[in-house]
Amino acid sequence: MNILILNWRDIKNPTGGGAEQLTHEMAKRWVQNGHAVTQITSLFPQGKRKETIDGVKFIRMGKWWTVHVLTGFYYRRYLSKKTDIIIDEVHWFPFFSKVYANKKTIALTCEVANKLLFTIFPYPIAGIFRIIEKFYLKLYKGVPTMVISESTKSDLIAQGHNKRNIIVLPMGFTKPTNLKQYKKEKTPTIIYLARLNKQKGIFDAVESVKIIKQQIQDVRLWVLGMGDKTVLDDLKNQIDQKDIQNNVTFFGFVSEDDKYRLLAKSHILIVPSVQEGWGLTVPEAGLVKTPTVAYNVLGLRDIIEDGISGKLVATHPKALAKGVIDLLQNKKQYQLLQMGAMKRAHSFDWDKTGEVSLSFIKKYL
Fold first, then answer.
1. Which end of the chain is more exposed for a tag (fewer CB within 10 A), N or C?
2. To the nearest whole percent, how much of the chain has pLDDT over 90?
């Protein structure tokens, strides 16, 4: 079987995230099962136009905002007769392969953006993207669809999609082979691991530190992740205004080893995101016995068992701060959530993801 994946980013793209890891982990397992897999994606600085990684062939073209259009022309000219199935990955909107390869298209939808668009973009642009989203949701009603959470499945059903055509993939994450053990910091330490933007909640994270500091003066926030210079400047100005300069440390982009080291040494992962497809950082933290306090939003409520593997709180910095304070001051509950988070993390397996997704593809071949 010849499988073509259409995704705006790939596993090597520096702006890639959990969705790209999911895509690649499935793709390389499809290759291991004897299938040919090609992915069309956007170019990035120093990225090769063509290369093969783990048996998956990559073709890169255009930017993230042009690759959708370029892909349609490229497919019609070079790949239409060589492709059995197209995995059309949806990030805000799909590649619209249904228009030129209707019977071959299967959608992979990580989340329905909806109101999230108005958090990310200014009103005129967000409004245009929302119109496009409404259009594609209607167009893709009959398309077989793979999703990564029950929340996304419910969103699609609410938009009129047939639940019989939707499958929720069991998720996995890549566990380190030689995971080192570290002692927790002596100082109460919370950690933020995501891109630095409004959508991921970095400003709420900083505001929560100011609130936590009123009860736990020596609290520390470790910030892991990159962001635009304008966001960083705004963030540092707010930190200065709140007088929490000594409580916040920026690490920027870190290696996998350093990521797990810092996750292991911190006490709590905070995830104040307004919406997630699937919160990959949650099981990563759980693997090293670091429970999560997160907003009770789409995606996160699918991965966190409230009161068992983490805490879900209302979407406000005050609620986030209270959740952290309660957990830091209740040793027994903290230890229970540590064990629950670790157990939950070990339940996720990429092999199962690859197996279930491949069976779904064969069903619609």
1. C
2. 80
